[in-house]
Every structure is written in C-alpha cells, then in structure tokens.
Known about the structure:
alpha/beta, six-stranded mixed sheet, four-stranded antiparallel sheet, 10 strands, binds adenosine-5'-diphosphate, binds magnesium ion
Amino acid sequence: MAELKETTEDTQDYKIEIRDVFFDYVQNKSKYEALKEINLNVKEGEFICILGSSGCGKSTLLSLLGGLNKPRSGEIRIDGKKIKGPGTDRAIVFQQYSLFPWLTVKGNVLFGIKQSGKKLSRKERNALAEKYVENVGLSGAKDRYPSQLSGGMKQRVAVARALALESDVLLLDEPFGAIDPKLRLELQELVSKLCTQHKKTVVFITHDVDEAILLADRIVVMEPGRIRSIHEVKLPHPRVREELVGTTEYEKLHRQLIMAFYDQVAERIDAEVAL
Ligand code: ADP
Ligand code: MG
C-alpha cells in the first residue's frame, strides 16, 4: 500500500520529479516550515491527487510546481529540466475562479491562448477557444460575462482556459472546493474525461477522499510538511461513483485513506486541545 519515499535515480522516466524539497515562509524574522522534505515522482499521463487537511502545505507544494515560489532547498524537474519559474508547460486552476470579469467566457479562454505564446493566427486562436469552450459544455454561454455565470460554470471556464494552454502538465488546487456536491460530481467526471482525452499529467489537490478515489491513479496523503503515505488506485477508468461504492477494492481503499487522513486530523485536534 504505502511507500513513504521513492527512489529518484532514473530521471528520464518521470514527467515530474520532486526531490528533497524544503520550503519555509519568512515573515518579520520568523520562519514557518511549510514543507520539510518532499520526494515524489510523477509518470507521464499520471493523475495524482494530493490529499491533506487544511494547512498541511498542499497549496505551497502546488505553488512550487507552478514556479510561483522556489524551493529553499531541493529541486523540482519537469521533463528532466529544473523549474526556474512559471512556464507554459504547466497550467494552473485555482479554487477561486480567477476569471477576468470584463472578458466573456470565450474572451477568458482566448486570453489563456494568447498567454501561451504560441504563434497562431486570429482565426486559429478563435477555433482553439471555441473547441475548449465546447469541451467543457459552455458553447451556449460563450458570450456571457463571469457575473452571469454560476460557480460551476465559472470553474468550467477556468478548466477550459487551462486546457487551452495545451500544456502537458495540469495543476489544480481544490478547484471544486466551493461547488455544491451534485455539480461537483459532474465537474469531477468532466475533468477526468478531459485529462484522459488530452493525455495530461495532473496534480490535483483536494481534501475530499471520495474525489481523490474517483480521479486519481495514485493518492498522496500529506501530513504537515510531509508526505504521509502513497496509495495506488487500481480501479479502472472511467469511474462512476455509484458503481464504485460498495465494491471491495473501493471500500478497502476508502478505509485506508480515512485512517491515513482523519487520524492525523484527530491527532492535531488532540494536540490543539492539549495546549
Ligand atoms: P494547505 O493548502 O494545505 O491548506 P498551505 O500550503 O496554504 O496549506 O499552507 C501551509 C502552511 O503555511 C500553513 O500553516 C499556512 O498558514 C502557512 N502559510 C501559507 N502561506 C503563507 C504565507 N504567505 N506566509 C506565511 N505562512 C504561510
Ligand atoms: Mg490550500
């Protein structure tokens, strides 16, 4: 089941390599060690979910993968090359929709395409935007502005904009955290389908055990600053939640994850109560 540290000798086989990564936040002379030692290899086309309670360093890790922050020590490589900053080889989707309110659905997706730096004609950019707006089921709403969209629709736009960059790697930070459960299921299935279709290597952050089982090839459970355990999900894709629940494999994995995840939440609450 769980392996805590992976070997990192053969660098060619991995899309993403995270090696001995340490990161601390420095504020007014005080330091907070958000990531103590992270080691993880991700294969090309793999869908990784990072599961962990609030404050354990998930977003910090994603910001390092995105090149928004740099590790204080250790390194992250993509395709064998060390990350030096943000790049068009990675697209990020945040929990906050982060759409431009003055641009339409299509305008927001077009903006992503322009940022990608690809040399495309106006017509090609338009066709690409239309394609990804359609991919997320928003063709009928392409001329609407963000204020005219529901939360679920806004997040579909954010996903379309990220896909339109056509990067190999997709990084998502609790993208459906603010979305109601039924819509959330629809979006999870959509992301799962699109990532398979477009052969993405994905790092998806969540604190939802069911979401992780539905999406991931491997689930990385974090505890503050560290990886606690890694769990392989051997269930075939595409996964349908109603068909999974109750199967032996699902129940076993669910139990393992709940123990790995909630035990540490309980440990933390105990520690806080004891203070
Ligand atoms: P998660 O995404 O798992 O909730 P974060 O990566 O956002 O956790 O944060 C990890 C830890 O680092 C938390 O204790 C948080 O308070 C702290 N932290 C996050 N951002 C900053 C910052 N800009 N300055 C100082 N501490 C921070
Ligand atoms: Mg976070």
